[in-house]
Amino acid sequence: MKILIKNGYIVSMVSEIIKGDILIEDDRIKRIGHIDCEVDRVIDATNKIVMPGLINAHTHVGMSLFRGCADEKELMTWLQKDIWPVEDKMTASDVYSASMLSGIEMIKSGTTTFNDQYFFEDETAKMAEKLGLRAILSRCIIGDGEEAHKRVAEAEELYNNWHNKADGRIKICVGLHAPYTCPPDTIRRGVELADRLGSPIHIHYLETKDEVKQMADKYQMTATEYLKKANVFNYHVMLAHGVHIDNESIETLKEISGGIVHNPVSNQKLGSGIADIRKLRSNGINVALGTDGQGSTNTLDMFEEIKSAAYLQKVIYQSATALSGEDVMKMATIEGAKVLGIDSEVGSLEENKKADIVIIDINKPHLCPMHDIYSLLAYSVNGADVETSIINGQIVMENRQIINADEQEIMRDCRRITESLFRR
Prior knowledge:
Layout: E1 2-10, E2 18-25, E3 28-33, E4 41-44, E5 48-52, E6 54-59, H1 75-87, H2 92-108, E7 111-118, H3 121-131, E8 134-141, H4 145-162, E9 170-172, E10 174-176, H5 184-197, E11 201-205, H6 209-219, H7 223-229, E12 237-241, H8 247-253, E13 258-262, H9 264-269, H10 277-282, E14 287-289, H11 294-297, H12 302-317, H13 325-331, H14 334-340, E15 357-361, H15 373-379, E16 386-391, E17 394-398, E18 401-402, H16 407-421
Parallel strand pairs: 1-4, 1-5, 6-7, 7-8, 8-9, 8-10, 10-11, 11-12, 12-13, 13-14
Antiparallel strand pairs: 1-2, 2-3, 5-15, 15-16, 16-17, 17-18
């Protein structure tokens, strides 16, 4: 299959913005420039922005059913009293439907890759396979004893069932919940599994001040010291949140493979704090963007995260130059790919990379006029402006119509499940 995208503003994230064409052959970008050749399909991108698909580097897509549930509560109260008890009642079928709703939401708002940690991840894998999304998935390992042992076994089974499936779009990693919920033996089991599988580790990290206190009280060390002692940093790591990172931890993080996933909307809504992203980036630490789950962020629109990330740094530094539109767009694309360890394949528009591309319609009042494309993308565009999404060379949304699912049917199903779930 050959697709030619014509006459767009091409924002590659790694080179100068040009007005030109992109030729897609099968699953890859074949050429970028001014192209005339016979193809199977031409997409006219005149007066449209063509850019890499966004990368949601930390989320829990099975949580779409918790959108707006028990808002305005502190993190631990929210988790222990409102979320975990209901999650215990969820079935595999519930998670599949919830994941389908999230997958549609992500595609319609420009996300082409997501990094997920939850349970019943086989169902999330089925969703990614059906809708055409690129995914890194992990079964959440939490707790201790036999329960933790069972979750490690399920994580390995997930890897055996799904790693490199769906034309290579689905990857599996090891998902440890957090230092404060995973005692040393559980961390050790997770690290051993990562070693055995040769996979990265995805873990929540320094999200709240409560976590800092819990680690000090329970282990007389910081979360960073705890993970370093457990050899977690010997592997490629995706560290979700990183709100409360001290200077000593920054020195450790300079040496890791992977990086921090900043979730600005979730951190604001839960009152967790503001991560000092400028400081991390100035120390050479990779920083990606994520949404977290809809229970704490309400939407999976990465453009909302992009805006928040930039604005928050300007506020804490009291400087309009603290984080530029270009910088934050790269965090949502190529830098996100680096944190996930997939930047050789996606995150930028380059010849021979995978064709994960979104096209944005800028013929709208809120996007007119256009002085600077990065500024427009960072501060004016929202997810509803994404017109077409292409993943692995396949069109998965065109003219805002999802190709591989009936979104109205999925929404009806999720409403029905939610009514039942909260009565169980």
